[in-house]
Amino acid sequence: MGALIPAVNGFAQDVLTKRNGDELEVKVIKVSTDEVEYKKWSNPDGPSYVLPKGDVFMIKYQNGDKDVFNETTSTAKAQAQESTSAPTKATPAAENAALIEAFNKTEEDLFKGATAKRKDKKAAAFYGTLGVGTSSVLSSDDVLISFVNEKKSLSETPYKYDGGVVSGLVGDKYRFFEGKFYIEITNKTSQTIYIDKANTFRIEPDGNYHVYYNAQQTTVNQGGGSGGGINLGAVTGALGIGGVVNTLAGGTTVGGGKEHSASTTYTDQKVVAIPPYGKLVLSKDDPIVIKESTLGTDKFKMASFSEDFRNAVVPFLQVGEYKAFSEQDSPATKRYIITYSTDPEFKSSKLLEFSMYIKDVVGLRRRYSYFDDVIEESSGQKDYNAKSIIVLFSRNLASKFKLSKAIGQ
To answer: What is this structure's pTM?
Structure first.
């Protein structure tokens, strides 16, 4: 009979297997909805211990029965409670209303030179300024939004870009005033602010949208010797209508090169940090040069774009004709949503929302390549200091507006 004692003892304990693989010899006291309570088999008169049910994989009882637990337990519930909460809207700071009022103030002298030269002749170019919606939040307790004219930029716009390789000239001397601007985000706090570009949007007048996170990856291989082997890596993801639309399903090789080469991969950061009291430009024209040419045109892809209103439809005007709009009757309004947090994991976050609309437009006799020339022609003053954001509207869209009015659409 004594030979049977070890066998009885062998089945006298419960075996608890944790999810990390550890096995414990225990006496299970209670299994509740969220926890497993037990005593150590080696110390049955000792204290009771509790494990979250989510940490337990299996219990093999002394009678041979088994309980296997899935992960939908207290641990999972705790993680759910700690997971990202829905973003809350950023509330305006005390200075917000004054900032909007100052931004929307009309510069009476800005277009005096142009209107003084009004002619009964169709304008060749249309320039205007922007206003900010009265319900916008330009300043919260955490961040401040400001706008800057971009005096020199590329002619490419996101509305016509398909994500492929572009032929053109990218050098600074080939950049001119294209009626673009950029958005600057200032961190007002002593903490780091994190911007979630994948949840930061610009909503176009037609309802299409642009996501500020570019999911594309571009790898540029530069071979030694004559010729360069350029490989555009396979593209993954899409940004949606109005953004950078991915078109490369696989690698595409342009030009030749040697077997040994150095490569650079360009990827966008989904989350970007603004240090305490620092500034961040949300998006600017950023070409990735695939092939730089000394003769002819360069080959490049656009990683990001500056802001513009080139896709807006404005009334067709005569030279020197000026038209002002309210927020309600503006030809075009664009909405912006910026998601930010002081937590790099975004367990809590805020949405800062603002809108920009066409405030006024004037017709000029021709298009100008330089910002200062636009200001001099419109104001009639050589050194006029423009405070407004100056934008350019495409002439073909203005013609489209005229045609749609003519046919009663």
So the answer is: 0.69
Distance (Å, whole) CA 115 – CA 375: 13
Q: Where are the alpha helices (DSSP H) in 223-382?
A: 371-379
Name beta bridge partners: 18. Answer: 56
Closest CA to 103 of 357, 362, 323: 357
Angle at 240 (CA atoms; ends 200, 174), nearest 5 degrees: 80
CB contact at 8 A, 309 and 334: yes
> Sheet of 298-304: strands edge to edge?
166-168, 298-304, 286-291
CA 42/CA 39 separation, integer angstroms: 8
The per-residue pLDDT for 218 is: 63
CA distance 354 to 384: 29
Burial code of 275-287, b = ≥16 C-beta within 10 A, e = fewer? eeeeebebbbbbb
- The alpha-carbon radius of gyration of the chain (Å, integer) is 31
Q: Please list the ranges in the chain whose pLDDT falls under 50.
A: 1-11, 73-74, 224-261, 396-409
331: which 2 tokens? Answer: 């030809």
Report how far Cα 393 is from the mean position of its chain's Cα atoms: 24
Q: How far is CA 370 from the centre of its chain?
A: 29
Three-state secondary-structure class, residue 110: coil
